[in-house]
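Input record (one chain):
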Amino acid sequence: MLSNLSTYYGEESIPGRSGSRDSGVAVNGVDGYDSTDSGCGNLGVSPGDRNTVAFEPVAICGMGMRLPGGVNDPDAFWDMLINKRDGRCPVPKDRYNAETWHAAGKKRHVPSDHGYFLDSSIDIKNADASFWSMTKKELEILDPQQRLSLEVVYETLQRAGQKPSELRGRKIGVWVGSFGGDRAELDAADPQTVHPYNLLNGFDFMPADRIHYEFGFMGPSVTVRTACSSSLLGLHQACYALIHGDCEAAVVAGTSIIYSPTLTATMNDHGVLSPSGICKTFDAEADGFVRGEAVVAVYVKRLSDAVRDGDPICSVVLSTASNSSGKSSTMTAPNPDAQEDLIRRAHEVAGITDYSRTAMMECHGTGTPVGDPLECEAVGRVF
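The corresponding structure, as predicted from the sequence alone:
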């Protein structure tokens, strides 16, 4: 995905809220955006350069998040990045017994008693039944990933200057990248205690459908499960749905909550997790990655629509592209040829031929002895 970052609008600039930011309140004319801007002017390309795929720039108008390190909003996330803080912490006691699962010599075990978990300020088990259309019992049983997604989406819409009640019945699409199935695993542990509501925790389609139902959206509803690429592929699909007119706006979310050790232990058996509990990407001592939790969302519209409606614009997506590794050395090994092709394809769709105009490349960065060198090779070929 190629994007063009513009001024960030925090909560102080949400329409209907008091306060202001020196970085700008209006969007028309900010950073070169006006009613006739394609979103590509700052990069020296034009829509006419896109001779392969018709891609209209897409604006990211709002965002919400729950991340490790006590990050619950965009300002806190920016503060973490600027101050180079790390969200690593011990496994919370309400997830699983890390001492038991981290026991030395145990055949199946988790590699570390640390990871990247949401902190104790986030209650993953309880919610206000009066705020949603679910009964108290249904909320008690609800998969925490779904419950937190509802909260984060609500905040995302507010930061985008939208009133959720006014979006009901409109063609708003939802794409949710989802990973893991911890709640379904726990539900199946004792079949005799399973409640009918548990059925809706196990279906793959429910993360997106739950958001659609609670907010009354009428656009496409898609849950994406493609491992590490799930939420980014969801954004790719949402962009093209916007361009093709399948929806007028879209919510794209990603969720991963860890409350069972089973998947972590299984991934450790495959040798991809760091025994030190620290992800040292592109480092000579890299020994694997560390699993983490997150619930994030963005609200996106066609750039022309966002400018017309006076929406806040956090960033502009100039293009997206998607492929897969094909027949690589193993089922899970990256393919540098495919990665190189994907990077070049994204630039091609955006009409960008001068790769030096790309200021930053965010890598997958698995921190594994196999994945890191192959990804470096692919990036090096292009840049």
